[in-house]
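JOB MANIFEST
job_type = single_chain_structure
chain_count = 1
residues = 201
[input]
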Amino acid sequence: MKEGIFVCIEGLDGSGKTTHAHRLVRNLQKRGFDAVYTTEPGRGELGKFIRASVLQGKKRVPRVVEAVLFAVDRVEHLEKDVKPALMEGKVVVSDRCVYSSLAYQGAAGLDLEWIEEVNRFALPPDLALYIDVPPEVVVKRIRRKKSVMERLETQRRVKEVYMKFVDNGKLMPIDGDRKKIEVEKNILTVVLEFLQNHKTS
């Protein structure tokens, strides 16, 4: 039985989700929580391949294959990293989770219901935050040569999918188009309130 809390932070590339996931972990640790950071894709061999093929664009595979690779990596990540930490009562803060597959691969034209079916073994987060930053802003933030997934038109499509999950209540929006300290405080307030409510429920 799960004892800990699984928190996921989502957002477009360049939205600051990695920075804020790390900051959230440090802020929780300062307040006495046993919090740990993790990320998707995972750090195993499959995760390394995904980074090279999809995220860095060095290799290309069909979109359907990408979706399956992400789903398999997600199961490995959950079994090796997330679930053991949760069983120890930790607060696990994940930099991306299943919503990234739905948003990015859905934006690439794959059917959302099919993506959900492929990811049916994915553990849904207890709390999922979406750092909302305009696509035009995140593209400017990415200074290196952009991959196909990081181009403006792609990021606009990705945001459209993310917003569907915001609208149905599965993702909680956080205004990310502000100073980092303001976003950091907002995220911490939301997470602390959730943890307090969870503790008393």
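[summary]
The first helix runs from residue 17 to 30.
The mean pLDDT is 91.
exit_status = 0
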